[in-house]
From TrEMBL:
Belongs to the major facilitator superfamily. Nitrate/nitrite porter (TC 2.A.1.8) family. It comes from Chromobacterium indicum. It is found in: Membrane. Pfam families: MFS_1 (PF07690). Keywords: Membrane, Transmembrane, Transmembrane helix. It is a multi-pass membrane protein. This is MFS transporter. The chain crosses the membrane at residues 28-48, 54-78, 85-108, 120-141, 162-184, 204-227, 248-270, 276-296, 308-329, 341-358, 399-418, 424-448.
Length: 459
């Protein structure tokens, strides 16, 4: 089972160089692999839903947007539990146990998609099970933050989240390929007839879920055998409530929701949005690109936060997302033109890139802001360095957990906003206008609180 550590002092240079760095890096990579798999499971549902009508499921466009909005919603709710339970169970042990839970959605989705007579409530149920994978970030990133000194937190969490988030892109790349072949033979079930327009062929839609089953077992065992448990922190819901009383928790929540919510929401909604706006264009070869760009740019955001300041990088990322939203608006079909798919695709890549930078830069604000705050309080109260680090780290972890929970709701809001805009106005334009104004609000908050010269928490 996992190894328990009784003493951990990453800010002690001798301890860090002689022992700490190697242990921290091992746990970082185990967390990356586990988080990557959680994102594979979390977002595979969006690729399944886009194929359901073609294999015979009778669901409307609005129902499809509802189905892809459920996993982010459940993921956000799961983070309420994941955000503190890891600190009681142990970070390493929870890595293994939470990974094993992914067997439920992988098995459930594989079973349900084989029966086109499955009622809509069953589709909603398995969509909710996929949300289990959404809880992982709340525990993985908080646990990882305690392994590294303040000077390396941004890059470490950027790598953890960025390569973990890459699971969305990998799922969107692999699933369209793996459903074309009988990878698991007759035991996995019969093929379905896929038809759209004049194109008809067999698919094995259950493969979208079953391909993850062996990886879940392998990665869970690796975490259980080789991960480490740091001294128990015992974060409780009360700590979360205490963090919620601090205004900086809500500023960081807003900023992280703007970037991370964008990543989740557009990753889930983009396949349906592209098909709705450009029905004559096959967008499936490009679906994985945006999430991949976002995931790979997240470590850049963490690095920029360490070097030039999280506030400055967050302002820049939100400006780019606002500009990208305007570009998407200009690319859409209208009464006067058929729109431009390639401009549409390019602007979404810009939004995904900026969201990745914002993910890394805004999330690493939490531990830094609260360590600065704890240091100022320590000068007044006469605390030791160890006490200050523990108090600031605890409050920062609680704030990160709250931010992670709230940001995941963005993954629900974006697909739901598109579905509601389509239902109420017959157009997606009101949803894009709302996103544009929200990005401008995030720019203003990041500049005023964390990047302007006179900001109290400039970092």
């Amino acid at each position: 089972m996992t190894v328990s550590i009784k003493r951990w002092e990453p800010e002690n240079v001798i301890f860090w160089l002689s022992r700490g760095r190697g242990i921290a890096r091992r746990n970082l990579w185990l967390s990356i692999f586990s988080l990557h798999l959680n994102f594979n499971i979390w977002m595979m549902w969006s690729m399944v839903v886009v194929n359901l009508p073609a294999v015979g499921f009778l669901i409307s466009g609005q129902q499809q947007f509802l189905l892809v909005s459920i996993p982010p919603l459940v993921g956000a709710l799961m983070r309420l539990i994941y955000s503190w339970i890891w600190s009681w169970v142990g970070g390493g042990l929870w890595l293994g146990l939470s990974t094993l839970l992914l067997l439920l959605p992988a098995w459930g989705v594989g079973r349900v998609v084989q029966d086109i007579s499955s009622p809509f409530w069953q589709l909603l149920l398995v969509a909710g099970l996929c949300g289990i994978g959404g809880g992982a970030s709340a525990s993985h990133l908080s646990n990882t933050s305690f392994f590294f000194p303040k000077s390396e937190k941004g890059l470490a969490m950027g790598l953890n989240a960025g390569l973990g988030n890459l699971g969305v892109s990998v799922a969107q790349l692999l699933i369209p390929l793996c459903i074309l072949y009988p990878l698991f033979g007759a035991r996995a079930g019969e093929p379905q007839v896929w038809g759209r327009g004049g194109e008809v062929h067999f698919v094995w839609l259950q493969n979208a879920a079953y391909i993850w089953l062996p990886l879940v077992v392998l990665i869970a065992l690796a975490c259980l055998l080789y991960a480490h448990d740091l001294p128990k922190l015992r974060i409780t819901p009360r700590d979360q409530l205490d963090a919620m009383r601090d205004a900086h928790t809500w500023y960081i929540c807003l900023l992280y929701m703007g970037s991370y919510g964008t990543f989740l929401g557009f990753s889930a909604a983009f396949p349906l949005l592209a098909r709705a706006m450009f029905p004559l264009v096959d967008a499936s070869p490009y679906l994985f690109v945006g999430p991949m760009v976002c995931a790979l740019s997240r470590p850049l955001g963490g690095w920029m936060g360490d070097r030039i300041g999280g506030g400055i990088a967050t302002v820049a990322s939100n400006l780019l997302m606002a500009l990208g939203t305007v570009g998407v608006y200009l690319s859409l079909p209208s009464a006067a033109s058929g729109g431009s798919f390639w401009l549409f695709l390019a602007m979404f890549q810009l939004i995904f890139f900026a969201a990745g930078v914002g993910n890394g830069s805004s999330y690493q604000l939490a531990p830094k802001v609260f360590l600065i705050q704890a240091g100022r309080d320590a000068q007044r109260d006469g605390e030791s360095l160890a006490q200050t680090y523990a108090r600031g780290g605890r409050r920062g972890a609680s704030a990160m957990n709250v931010s992670s929970v709230m940001a995941a709701f963005g993954g629900f809001v974006i697909p739901k906003a598109f579905g509601s805009a389509l239902s109420w106005f017959g157009s997606f334009l009101p949803a894009f206008a709302m996103f544009f104004l929200f990005y401008l609000l995030c720019c203003a908050v990041a500049w005023w609180q964390y990047s302007r010269t006179g900001a109290a928490m400039r970092c």
